[in-house]
Amino acid sequence: MEIEGLRVLVTGGAGFIGSHIAQQLADAGAEVIVYDSMVRPAPDPVARSGVRVVVGDIMDYERLRAACQGVDVISHHAAQLEVTTSLNDPLADLRTNAEGTLNVLRAAHEVDARKVILASSACVYGEARYIPQDENHPTEPNWPYGVSKLAMEKYAQVFSIYYRLPIVSVRYAITYGENEWYGRVLTAFARRAIEGKPPVVWGGGQQIRDFTYVGDAARLHNLLIQRDEVTSGAFNVSTGIGTTILELARMFSQTFHLPAPIAENIAQGEASREVEGRVRLPLELKRMVLENESARALGWSPEIPLNEGIRREVAWARRHLDHWQRPSA
Length: 329
Prior knowledge:
By secondary structure, the chain is of the alpha/beta class. Helix content is 38%, strand content 16%. It contains eleven helices and 13 strands. α1 (16-27) crosses α7 and α4 (90-110) runs parallel beside α5.
């Protein structure tokens, strides 16, 4: 289906990935409704013609359904995102990510939406048995967050079959870029770079990750809306390139002329002594690199290399350090 003229509702559309999706859709001529609780909006809100913001929570079914009335496509990006929150309060994580998604799917069915795109995560795979991980890799999440995202996908499969509703899940690798919230490793490196401090690396920095620029992720998401033949299943959103945390740290040091990275020997679950407020995640993944052949078969490929994406995020963060310093950010 053509983007121009489509009526699209984006839950979480004032947040990180959702704001990029909403902006790209609006630029392509879609009529966009952002449905967001505005608890943690991006500092660069969607401010394009053709975008309307409805303040609401996905747990408020009646308000959500009313906002969905008359839409063609629903993009569901409202979620509980923090791994630490899922560990400390798995029930709250489950309610938001599973029950909230059920509300979205119910609403999509009742308003006769033409397609639903769901934001899933590489966390559904858990520790890699092989890399790159394709969409058929076993799903054995190691964190409650991954469990709630996998539950969301399973509900989507049932709705897709039972109601003949086209539903596609996108499994994001480590997505980064402008409007990102503070908390993950790349943002920690970025804030220290702005302060003129070197990155701090835990566990030798040999953990491998797939870092994907948010603009590239939004392009694939919007391509999945356009491709009418794509009516179900999951797609990895990734570069397919593995980068160790130590390599990432050295990239920051070289790009921003910082001293060499600092090695800090702390155990999983232990608080950092070098970086205030940072805790090394328990049950840490050793490897996470996603294959993207399914996405490439649709004509998509990632365009922004990691060093360029880092420069863009740091330039943005210099203007929005107050966003990263808020307790909720």
